Amino acid sequence: MIKHSLLRGGGLRLLTILVAILSTLILAIPSQAEDGYPLFAITLDTGQTVIMDSKSADSCPRGCYGTAGFVYKGTNYVLRMDVFSVGNGTPNRGGGHATISDLNGKLVKDLGDFGCIRIREGGLDSWWVMCDSPSEPVSLPQPQKTAKLVFDANGGSNAPTPMTATGTTGAIIFKLKGKEPSQDHFTFLGWNTDKHATAATVDKNGSVSVPYGSTITLYAIWQRIPSSRLIYHAGTDENNPVEQYTRESGTSVTVYDFSDSHLKAVGFTVPSGMKFDHWTTASDGTGTTYYADANFIYGTTDVNLYPVFTPLLTSMPSTGTSESPMPAASLMFMFAGLVCFSKKRLLG
């Protein structure tokens, strides 16, 4: 009785161990088994695993295919498995061919042929197609990427054409060619990646590094050209008419004569008995002198021009000859001097 009891106790323990092992085996079945086995899977050299959706054997009687999208080092790819035939086991294995392409359908890597078989899900009467996986991690060649440098005139015009280059990794240094955009009334300072900046960070002959696969935009930075006024005064009185002209700094013009039609049109008149001689930048006549038709260059501050007049000479009475009055007057003074000299000699 005692021996029989021990055997019965040992049998119970053995049954417990068998149940535990069976449970472990059941739990070890891949999770994909709930929805079928994956058609195909690869492991990348980055450690990432790409798994293709399941394909039932019924949906692949004479061939089928599956795809899976993935991202490798920042670039999108598509994994494809074309199954040509399905075997029933190790001695009788079908075949499929796997490839990787970019999103445009261009072949990136041919993974080759792989065996494909039917496999049943657990004890259920559900069969799936599963192809062998590569034995080594899969690496992909780096794709060609474009680096682009774009110029924005930022309110101006005639921006340089974009600069482009292709490569796989790293960056390219673009050398600017010195071309400037244009904008009326503004001076071009240079370039900046900030559209609203007030100072340039890149000279028109500078260099810019652009990583492959990216685009950098340079915006033109402008500074308004300062302007000033050239103000003509008809006289020193504040009630005298004035005429003014505004130009940008650096503009060169010819100084008007007082009798110029532009000034006459606003009421400039020469005082009676006077004639215009020149302009001066100070109302008291002590400023810089400008004569009519002189060259004037605008700066950043306003300049006032005041007229300087001189009296007209009074003419001698006409003698009826064509000679001018001044030589006749000189002769009279010379005659008077000779008379005085003669009288002194007689008295002596």
Automatic annotation (TrEMBL):
Transmembrane segments: none annotated. GO terms for cellular component: cell envelope. InterPro entries: InlB-like_B-rpt, Listeria/Bacterioides_rpt_sf. It is found in: Cell envelope. It holds the Pfam family Flg_new. This is Bacterial repeat domain-containing protein.
